[in-house]
Design brief:
Layout lengths: L32 E5 L2 E4 H16 L4 H6 L4 H21 L6 H15 L2 H12 L6 H18 L6 H18 L1 E3 L6 E2 L4 E2 L5 H7 L9
Antiparallel strand pairs: 1-2, 1-3, 4-5
Helix pairs in contact: 1-3, 3-6, 3-7, 4-5, 4-6, 6-7
Length: about 220
């Protein structure tokens, strides 16, 4: 992981790491799939499309070389995030948690205000988290959902105990859904809710002493 600059903004997507784009097909059971979560098939093409969005945005920056070097495992990290999102969405639904478009927009408005502008918000997400401008709403959807799920469970994501409560629910949901990952991307760890080096944003933030701030 690259060194992060101090900023007043607490962002949600820690999606950086170490492997090139994978152009191969999926497993024999699921040709062309990077992973299958329950009945939801995540294609290799979908993962590559997310990576391309980030690379295109990075290449427009003066810091392109540095950002690309520090996010060379983007394929695996993007897939990890896509799997996590689906498991989180099911866990939240099972707990009766709902996140509206207004929740996401309110969180974005607050973070943009903290950052100083919408443009600065986009720069922070891209530079520090490998998230393209077009992917920010999805990242915020995850952040707000995790926050609301924790509140529903009476857990504080700013503590190890609170994280454990949420991770236990996520693990149970993950096992119930079933997660089948193309071995070229790694193995899904249901207990930790992560794929390879991917780490849930709220865990990564807390590990650095930063709580999730969404205003939700």
């Amino acid at each position: 992981m690259h060194r992060r600059r101090r900023t007043a903004l607490s962002v949600s997507a820690a999606l950086l790491g170490a492997a090139p784009l994978l152009a191969a097909c999926g497993s024999q059971a699921h040709p062309g799939a990077a992973a299958v979560v329950g009945k939801d098939r995540i294609t290799v093409a979908a993962v590559q499309a997310q990576v391309k969005e980030v690379r295109d945005a990075q290449n427009k920056s003066p810091q392109a070389a540095e950002m690309i070097k520090s996010s060379n495992n983007l394929s695996g990290m993007k897939l990890g995030g896509m799997i996590f999102d689906r498991v989180l969405a099911r866990a939240a639904a099972d707990a009766g948690v709902k996140v509206t478009r207004k929740d996401v927009q309110d969180a974005r408005d607050q973070l943009a205000k903290q950052a100083g502008s919408e443009q600065r918000l986009q720069q922070v997400y891209l530079q520090q988290n490998g998230v393209a401008p077009s992917q920010i709403d999805a990242a915020l959807q995850e952040q707000v959902t995790a926050s609301k799920l924790a509140q529903q469970l009476g857990a504080d994501l700013g503590t190890s105990a609170g994280q454990t409560v949420v991770l236990q629910v996520m693990a149970k949901t993950s096992k119930a859904m079933g997660v089948d990952v193309n071995p070229r991307y790694g193995v899904w760890n249901a207990k930790k809710s992560q794929l390879g080096e991917y780490q849930a944003p709220w865990i990564a933030q807390t590990a650095k002493g930063q709580g999730i701030q969404t205003g939700a």
